[in-house]
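Dear colleagues,

For the upcoming journal club I promised to circulate an example of a predicted protein-ligand complex. I picked one with FE2/S2 (inorganic) cluster because it came up in last month's discussion. The inputs are reproduced below in full, followed by the predicted structure.
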Amino acid sequence: MDTIAKVSEVPNFGKKVVTISGKEILLANVKGTIYAVENECPHQGSPLGAAFIKDGYLSCPRHGYRFSLADGHCAEHPEFVLATFPVQLDGDEILVDLG
Ligand code: FES
Protein backbone atom coordinates (compact mmCIF):
# COMPACT_ATOMS: atom_id res chain seq x y z
CA MET A 1 0.00 0.00 0.00
CA ASP A 2 1.20 3.48 -0.80
CA THR A 3 0.48 6.69 1.08
CA ILE A 4 -1.00 8.98 -1.56
CA ALA A 5 -2.67 11.82 0.37
CA LYS A 6 -3.88 12.98 3.75
CA VAL A 7 -7.46 12.68 4.97
CA SER A 8 -7.37 16.39 5.81
CA GLU A 9 -6.81 17.12 2.10
CA VAL A 10 -10.12 15.47 1.11
CA PRO A 11 -13.00 17.30 2.80
CA ASN A 12 -16.20 15.53 3.74
CA PHE A 13 -18.26 15.09 0.53
CA GLY A 14 -15.23 16.39 -1.36
CA LYS A 15 -12.82 14.89 -3.89
CA LYS A 16 -9.15 15.10 -4.71
CA VAL A 17 -7.20 13.85 -7.73
CA VAL A 18 -3.66 12.61 -7.21
CA THR A 19 -1.23 11.28 -9.80
CA ILE A 20 0.78 8.22 -8.81
CA SER A 21 3.21 6.62 -11.26
CA GLY A 22 1.44 8.36 -14.13
CA LYS A 23 -1.98 7.09 -13.06
CA GLU A 24 -4.66 9.55 -11.90
CA ILE A 25 -6.55 8.41 -8.82
CA LEU A 26 -9.71 10.12 -7.61
CA LEU A 27 -10.20 10.12 -3.85
CA ALA A 28 -13.66 10.79 -2.46
CA ASN A 29 -14.70 11.33 1.14
CA VAL A 30 -18.25 10.27 2.00
CA LYS A 31 -18.98 10.91 5.67
CA GLY A 32 -15.43 9.97 6.64
CA THR A 33 -15.15 6.90 4.40
CA ILE A 34 -12.46 7.38 1.78
CA TYR A 35 -12.84 5.75 -1.63
CA ALA A 36 -10.20 5.51 -4.35
CA VAL A 37 -11.14 5.02 -8.00
CA GLU A 38 -9.48 5.54 -11.35
CA ASN A 39 -10.00 9.10 -12.60
CA GLU A 40 -11.15 7.91 -16.00
CA CYS A 41 -14.67 6.85 -16.90
CA PRO A 42 -14.74 3.34 -18.39
CA HIS A 43 -17.41 4.48 -20.89
CA GLN A 44 -15.57 7.08 -22.97
CA GLY A 45 -12.71 8.14 -20.76
CA SER A 46 -14.02 11.33 -19.19
CA PRO A 47 -12.12 12.55 -16.14
CA LEU A 48 -14.28 12.18 -13.04
CA GLY A 49 -13.06 15.07 -10.91
CA ALA A 50 -16.27 16.99 -11.62
CA ALA A 51 -18.52 14.00 -10.96
CA PHE A 52 -21.44 14.24 -8.57
CA ILE A 53 -21.59 11.86 -5.63
CA LYS A 54 -24.92 10.69 -4.27
CA ASP A 55 -26.06 7.59 -2.39
CA GLY A 56 -22.70 5.89 -2.78
CA TYR A 57 -22.56 6.42 -6.53
CA LEU A 58 -20.41 8.74 -8.57
CA SER A 59 -22.07 10.20 -11.70
CA CYS A 60 -19.84 10.79 -14.68
CA PRO A 61 -20.08 14.43 -15.79
CA ARG A 62 -20.17 13.52 -19.50
CA HIS A 63 -23.13 11.14 -19.91
CA GLY A 64 -24.26 10.62 -16.35
CA TYR A 65 -23.52 6.92 -15.96
CA ARG A 66 -23.41 6.11 -12.24
CA PHE A 67 -20.64 3.99 -10.74
CA SER A 68 -20.55 2.48 -7.27
CA LEU A 69 -17.74 3.97 -5.22
CA ALA A 70 -17.46 0.66 -3.36
CA ASP A 71 -16.98 -1.77 -6.25
CA GLY A 72 -17.15 0.28 -9.47
CA HIS A 73 -20.22 -1.41 -10.96
CA CYS A 74 -22.36 0.75 -13.22
CA ALA A 75 -26.01 1.02 -12.24
CA GLU A 76 -27.34 1.43 -15.80
CA HIS A 77 -24.72 -0.30 -17.92
CA PRO A 78 -23.14 -3.29 -16.16
CA GLU A 79 -20.74 -3.84 -19.05
CA PHE A 80 -18.78 -0.81 -17.82
CA VAL A 81 -16.88 -1.15 -14.54
CA LEU A 82 -14.88 1.63 -12.93
CA ALA A 83 -11.55 0.53 -11.43
CA THR A 84 -11.55 0.82 -7.64
CA PHE A 85 -8.65 0.42 -5.22
CA PRO A 86 -8.53 -0.82 -1.60
CA VAL A 87 -8.05 1.99 0.94
CA GLN A 88 -6.69 1.97 4.49
CA LEU A 89 -6.37 4.91 6.83
CA ASP A 90 -3.44 5.35 9.20
CA GLY A 91 -4.18 8.42 11.26
CA ASP A 92 -4.32 11.24 8.70
CA GLU A 93 -2.63 9.16 5.99
CA ILE A 94 -4.57 7.61 3.12
CA LEU A 95 -2.98 4.37 1.94
CA VAL A 96 -4.11 2.86 -1.33
CA ASP A 97 -3.31 -0.51 -2.88
CA LEU A 98 -2.79 0.27 -6.54
CA GLY A 99 -2.19 -3.40 -7.37
S1 FES B 1 -17.79 9.15 -20.60
FE1 FES B 1 -18.56 8.73 -18.61
S2 FES B 1 -20.62 8.19 -18.96
FE2 FES B 1 -19.82 8.53 -20.93
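Two points we might discuss: The two ends are 8 Å apart (CA to CA). The chain has one domain: 2-96.

See you all on Thursday,
B. R.
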